[in-house]
Write a structure and sequence with these properties.
Helix content: 25-40%
Low-confidence stretches: 177-186, 377-385
Shape: elongated
CATH superfamily of the largest domain: von Willebrand factor, type A domain
Number of helices: 13
Distance between the termini: 68 Å
Structural class: alpha/beta
Number of strands: 20
Number of domains: 3
Largest sheet: 6 strands, mixed
CATH topology of the largest domain: Rossmann fold
């Protein structure tokens, strides 16, 4: 049972006769009448056991983007339902309105529109719908949670989508679909055309030349149907925060952009989310569903504190293809100690595949190394003189710059080790990593490494 504000207000009226008559009997009598009326009101309220809830809502929604759904309340009872409905979603689902007033006559149903604006990716759930049915007087109500479980998978925002048109245009140039011709790229035969000054004589087709009595050359295009394998690090490297976002968000954006680009180029794209075990796989994504399938899998990825088991990556790649592939390890190279396991598998991968490794830099550390950060407050206890246990501001700035330089030098050293192993390292700030990974893929196709 629940009571309304009207019930409380009527009870408060009992104070008036108590004060005027100087006795509490009149107030008690009034309170008794109000309580009895509320009890009768509850008895006359709709039977919530005869109320059904139905949902019509999308299974997927993109973070920071609104999605619409509907909530249907069906009254199969004999009494009118006058109530307040609250859908019990997690707060991060961003659903609105939080409460709905609904009036459903007997034997009818009413539909309410819900809007979701989730601000966290992942799986958002609801346990049910809380319904409070008031009687005709609006004093008391029956209350019950109706079983109506549902879930909404919130996919990543895919902010790097804005880089996709320019990279697709460059792919079309490589593929000969635009008027611009890039000679000498690719290994798959495309067509024959007349020889022009500057063409490579090795591309002359002598049989076609003999038939046409004029020089004819072959044109080539990047091969299609190649394998692109993206491994996203969901271990401790992804848990570090850069600019108030976990590195894993940058890893996800890079995987989404590369997946969409490679699928549009006609290549087969596979995804693996890895920490100390494989947490998610996407195999055989097509051009039309690669973003959705990648987003659905990556939406459930959460950075953990376990060390990523990079030793399983060669076997993971072999399980996808035994041919040469373009393998992207979306992680971060920070120091030799933290990246030792990753560095150990790179030579084995690079012998058979074209490998790219990402490294996310922290702009704050770079500014600190340049001395561009504002000095912090000296802290408490400095007004009356310098505390003997605290260095002064200049000394602390020197320590900060030295620590930042040490961090950057460690990252440079690890990147050099990776390059000597035969892999390409993409090292940049978070917002620059996804387009640079896409550029590395385009270079691999242009030079025939893929």
């Amino acid at each position: 049972m629940a009571i309304s504000g009207r019930f409380v207000a009527l009870l408060a009226v009992a104070i008036v006769p108590t004060v005027l008559l100087g006795t509490g009997w009149a107030g008690l009598a009034w309170a008794g009448v109000v309580v009895v009326a509320a009890g009768l009101d509850v008895l006359l309220a709709a039977d919530l056991a005869r109320v059904r809830v139905e949902r019509r809502m999308p299974r997927l929604a993109r973070r920071d983007t609104a999605a619409d759904g509907t909530l249907v309340l069906a009254n199969d009872g004999s009494r009118r339902l006058r109530g307040v409905v609250r859908d019990m979603w997690e707060p991060s689902a961003g659903h609105a309105p939080r409460r709905l007033r609904m009036d459903v006559p007997s034997g009818e149903r009413r539909t309410a529109r819900m809007r979701f604006a989730p601000f966290r990716r992942g799986r958002r759930t609801t346990a049910g719908v809380a319904v409070r049915a008031f009687g005709p007087l609006g004093l008391g109500a029956r209350q019950r949670v109706l079983h109506a479980p549902a879930e909404l998978v919130v996919t990543p925002p895919f902010r790097s989508r804005r880089h996709l048109p320019s990279r697709l245009a460059r792919l079309r140039e490589l593929d000969g679909e635009t008027t611009l011709q890039l000679r000498g790229h690719g290994t798959e035969f495309d067509s024959l055309r007349d020889y022009v000054r500057g063409d490579d004589v090795r591309s002359i087709d002598w049989r076609a030349t003999a038939r046409r009595q004029d020089l004819v050359v072959r044109t080539w295009r990047p091969e299609r149907d190649r394998r692109v394998i993206v491994v996203v690090d969901a271990g401790r490297a992804g848990a570090g925060r850069v600019d108030d976002e976990p590195r894993l968000d940058t890893f996800i954006e890079s995987a989404l952009l590369l997946g969409a680009l490679a699928a549009a180029a006609g290549d087969r794209v596979d995804l693996a989310v890895l920490d100390d075990a494989v947490r998610g796989r996407v195999h055989g994504a097509t051009r039309t569903d690669v973003v959705q399938r990648f987003g659905e899998t990556l939406a459930l990825a959460e950075p953990g504190l376990a060390a990523t088991d990079w030793s399983t990556v060669p076997a993971l790649v072999d399980s996808v293809t035994t041919s040469r592939a373009f393998v992207v390890l979306v992680s971060s190279l920070d120091s030799v100690g933290a990246s030792a396991d990753l560095l150990a598998v790179l030579p084995r991968l690079a012998r058979r595949h074209a490998v790219v490794v990402t490294s996310v830099t922290d702009p704050t550390v770079e500014r600190m190394a340049r001395g561009a950060l504002e000095p912090t407050d000296d802290g408490p206890g400095r007004r009356g003189g310098r505390a003997p246990f605290l260095p002064d501001r200049a000394e602390r700035d020197v320590y900060r710059r030295a620590a930042a330089e040490r961090t950057l030098l460690d990252a440079d050293g690890v990147a050099d080790v990776a390059r000597r192993a035969g892999v390409e390292v993409v090292r940049a700030a978070p917002e620059q990593v996804p387009p640079l990974v896409a550029d590395a893929y385009i270079r691999a196709k242009a030079t025939g490494r893929l």
